[in-house]
Amino acid sequence: MSFDPTLAAFRFGYGLSPHHSAPQDVQTLMADLSGPDLGQKAHHISVFSQAAPTPLALNVANREQNRARGTDKFEAAQAHARHLMKLAREQAAKNLGAEIARAVDAPVGFRERLVAFWADHFTVRSRSNRTTHLVTPYIEEAIRPHITGNFADLLFAATTHPMMMNYLQQTQSIGPNSVIGLRRGRGLNENLAREVMELHTLGVDGPYTQTDVTEFAELLSGLSYTPLDGFEYSPRRAEPGRETVLGVTYSDEASLDTIRDALDDLARHPATAAHLAHKIAVHFLSQTPNPSLVADLTEAFAKGRLMDVYQTLLDHPAAWVSQREKVRTPQEYITASLRALGISGQDIAQADRTMIRRYVVNPMRVMGQPWQRPVGPDGWPEDPAAWIIPQTMAGRITWAMRTPQDLLDVLPDPRDFVRTALGPRAAPEVVFAAGAAASRKDGVGVVLSSAAFQRR
Amino acid sequence: MERRHFLKSGLMLGCSAAASPLLTPVAFAQGPWDNRLVVIILRGAMDGLDVIRPRGDADYASHRATLATDDSLDLTDFYGLHPALAPLHPLWQKGEFGAMHAVSTPYRDKRSHFDGQDILEAGLNDLQSGPQDGWLNRMLQAVPGLTAQTAYAIGAEQMLVMTGDAPVSRWSPEARLRLSDHARRLLEVVHHDDPLFRAASANALDITDGLLMTADEDAATMEAAMMDPMMADVGQGQHVSVAEFTATRLLRETRIASFSIGGWDSHQNQAPQLNRVLRQLSDTILTLRAGLGDVWDRTAVLCMTEFGRTVRENGTKGTDHGTGGAMLYAGGALKGGRVLGQWPGLGAGDLYADRDLMPTADVRGAAGWAMQGLFGLNQSVIEGTIFPGLDMGGDPGILL
Questions:
Q1: C-alpha triplet B68, B70, B71: angle, nearest 5°
Q2: Domain spans in chain B, listed from the N-terminal domain onward
Q3: Residue A253: its pLDDT value, please?
Q4: A372: phi > 0 → left, psi -120 to 50 → alpha, else beta; which?
Q5: Three-state SS for A436?
Q6: Buried b (16+ CB within 10 A) or exposed e, A151-181
Q7: Which helix (H) or strand (E) is A402 found in, with range?
Q8: pLDDT for B188-220, tens place per residue?
Q9: What's the whole-number average pLDDT of chain A?
Q10: CA pair distance B114, B144, nearest whole angstrom
Q11: Nearest-Cα residue of chain A relative to residue B317
């Protein structure tokens, strides 16, 4: 129950690397958050509002193509639309490459793990193939800047982001008695309001009712985003009158400030602190987290500053239990493998779409994690038993046995690699197997296939 | 060994059937019966009111300004069928396709997909003690004679309905694993002390061995099935691959199969969305039917969803999360061509919470009656173990 560098690298980062030494203390982990954002500097990812091709450009190209049907302009319009879609697909692959490159190059990796955790907490899935390349830019814009700040800011940024509004259909929700609602005979869509309460803040066991969901949906109804006009608060869509959510009645003045107030109250709610404290402990440590840790995290969370939460997590003895209960997700697994193999982030970031698909996207799907396409807004499973089943295990073993030799001219000696990948106190059975393998390929594959490498 | 037979035909399905996040791999179990049960979980909450349309209800059309189109197919004096299920209409006329309306699980009010699906698949009154296992698995637990040799675990995503202490198989076609014998032994070494990894990798190796053996035989079966005239308009896709594989399993030792079809969460522009996903459902059922041949007469297919949707269309030509809905069923072992259940009405005061279809029966009851008829299970087992706390009520008329 005390700090261990290898454990720190596995549990709070993306594992060991031949190019970086494992973190030597809790201060090093925290300094990864308080210091400059090294990942952002090393591998650029555009924020949503600057990402290309833009949703507007793609929509216009699509519309022009449809309009030109049957005319002599059709071929040019079609070529243009196809070109933009090709750029979008290539950009999506570059995004994944950049995500992995940051984690592979990170000296510590705690920041990257937290970005992934919060991106999953505020899951966004693209609803159209014209926006798949914009999920990572959503994370860059709404999640990454806020993970070391206040939860309320993170919640506001994620909830009001165009990609979130699109995913949970807030863009379609209109106050039924608003100017636009009355004119068009349109009404509410409760999806975002419900998921903010159920998933993002209070938790499904939280003290809210259907009435709270409906009132909150009315309160959110002024949020508007279109590719043409961008994000704006539209009083003409907002349901008139006061709304009462969880017993608090908000101003009848329709404005973004009212939404901010309601989200701040949800962020501050004790149920939110308890929900998030438990979730963080589950994510990093155990399906059945230590109750005293969860209590401490709840208390820290209630103060609102996320850095306090992380410090509390790392200071608690339960964070350093040597038993590694959790399992790396497929994306973590591939990332940690590339990191252990010493492959440079630069090479990954420059890989083309074919390479990314062959070595990352397709294998992740077989491992049970189609990239950025979880089934629902609750994101990816936490339970190790959900990830390690025969079919997905076959995907992991296949990747471990085949991919390293495709990516490296010379595979490392497995007897060295087992120390690089698992640290100075590598599990003896893995050390034995690495030395007993019939080839470098098998030896490296067996190390990467081992439970010791995949548990964190 | 039976296991080899079970496993050997997966590879012919190619590499795509697990690719869709909307379609989960198939879970199978064998049993000492001749009848077959397929449970399809429709994830996302199917709008029962749009699929089995209560045209005879005076209030129906007014609640559904754009969705109540006049191109429904005739089912009964009262009900019409969504036009996208036209390919199943001949089955209705043969009595091989039916529905039960105004059903729900005991889940109320929070209308969460995730909890709703957990309640449906756990088959419990609530989630107070958490979803420990699924009701199909508890049924298997209640049946003597199941061993590790008669059920198999294959697949990428868990079907809670099949999960539990009884041994069950899961399958997914994308996994391929070729290792030397030496590498296999080393894998056993590095997984030896971790039961989760040890079991998963050992099973993965067994399964992929088996899949290689004879894909040809099952391919021939399905090729013949494709000649069935009702298959003329069935498309291609992962759902069809899953149905084909399910049929080939049910023709062998498998008696229970379960998979899911997602994409029912139609908050906006419901019409095109339901057209697409209902087409997948009809393709799935027609493929099962053609693939099973004579065995279709001994097969029951239950299509269940976590809850229904709002009675009133929302502002975006869709519907929001509701309560009561419809269960669809098919197969020669059930009595179709009818809409079972008690209709609660759609008038003022008839609705649940003034927004949803009022459930008049527990959807677990219908499943319970089907299981009793198919497998001769004792009512006390159904009400005590499989669906603890359920009152099956009277026979809704689902059995032949």
A1: 115
A2: 2-386
A3: 84
A4: left
A5: helix
A6: bbbbbbbbbbbbbbbbbbbbbbbbbbebebb
A7: helix A390-407
A8: 999 999 999 999 998 888 777 765 554 677 778
A9: 95
A10: 32
A11: A186
Let me know the angle formed at the C-alpha of A218 by A247 and B115, rounded to the nearest 5 degrees.
75
- pLDDT category, A366, cuts 50, 70, 90? confident
> What are the two backbone dihedrals, phi and then psi, of residue A455, each rounded to the nearest 5 degrees?
-85, 145
- A241-285 pLDDT, tens digit per residue, is 999 999 999 988 879 999 999 999 999 999 999 999 999 999 999
A373 CB-near residues (< 8 Å, 6+ apart) = A125, B21
Assign B149 a pLDDT band (cuts: 50, 70, 90). very low
| Alpha helices, DSSP H, located in A69-209 | 74-105, 110-121, 135-138, 151-159, 162-167, 179-184, 191-195
| Closest partner CB to A432 (pick from B189, B197, B315) | B189
Does position A449 have pLDDT exceeding 90, yes or no? Answer: yes
- Residue A442: its chain B contacts at CB < 8 A? 180, 182-183, 186
Do B109 and A210 make contact, defined as CB atoms within 8 angstroms?
A: yes
B2, pLDDT greater than 60: no
Please give the Cα distance from A449 to A441 (Å, whole number).
12
- A:B CB pairs within 8 Å: 178
With CB atoms and an 8 Å threshold, state whether B183 touches A376. no
Chain A from 313 to 352: CB within 8 A of any B CB: 327
**Range A180-187 average pLDDT:** 93
Q: Do A204 and B203 touch (CB under 8 A)?
A: no
Best mutation target among A180, A329, A391 (most B Cβ atoms within 10 Å) is A391
Chain B, residues 160-199, CB within 8 A of chain A, namely: 170-172, 174-177, 179-180, 182-183, 186-187, 189-194, 196-198
Residue type, B322: G
pLDDT for res B147: 47
Is the per-residue pLDDT at A318 higher than 50?
yes
Which residues touch A324 (CB under 8 Å, ≥6 apart)? A7, A10, A11, A455, A456
| Cα–Cα distance for residue pair A192/A240, rounded to 1 Å | 19
With vertex at residue B282, the alpha carbon angle to CA B278 and CA B286, rounded to the nearest 5 degrees, is 170
Of B111, B158, B193, nearest to A429 by CB-CB distance is B193
| pLDDT at site A225 | 97
Closest residue in chain B to residue A183, using alpha carbons only: B315
Please confirm whether the linkage preceding A53 is cis (ω < 30° from 0).
yes
Least CB–CB distance from B112: residue in A204, A384, A433: A204
Least trusted range by pLDDT, from A238-242, A276-280, A412-416, B173-177: B173-177
Among all chains, which residue has been given the structure tokens 């559904």?
A: B64
Q: How far apart are CA A184 and CA A406, in angstroms?
A: 58
Interface predicted TM-score of the whole assembly (ipTM), two decimals: 0.93
Structure tokens at B206: 């067994």
Dihedrals phi, psi of A395, to nearest 5 degrees: -60, -40
Closest CA to A235 of A186, A168, A158, A174: A174
Element (H, E) at A354: helix A353-356
A370 touches B: beta carbon within 8 Å: yes
| Residue B171 Cα distances to B174, B248, B263, B391, B392, angstroms | 9, 13, 21, 34, 32
Among residues B246, B169, B201, the alpha carbon closest in space to that of B4 is found at B169
Nearest one of A369, A356, A362 to A330, comparing CA atoms: A369
Alpha helices, H only, chain B = 2-7, 48-51, 60-63, 89-94, 113-122, 135-141, 181-191, 195-213, 216-225, 238-251, 270-292, 363-375, 379-381
Interface test with chain A among B187, B206, B208, by most A beta carbons within 10 Å: B187
Contacts of A452 in chain B (CB under 8 A): 190
Which secondary-structure segment (H or E) carries B172?
A: none
Please indicate whether, in this complex, the C-beta atoms of A390 and B203 are within 8 angstroms of each other.
Answer: yes
Minimum distance, in Å, between the CA of residue A33 and any CA atom of chain B: 33
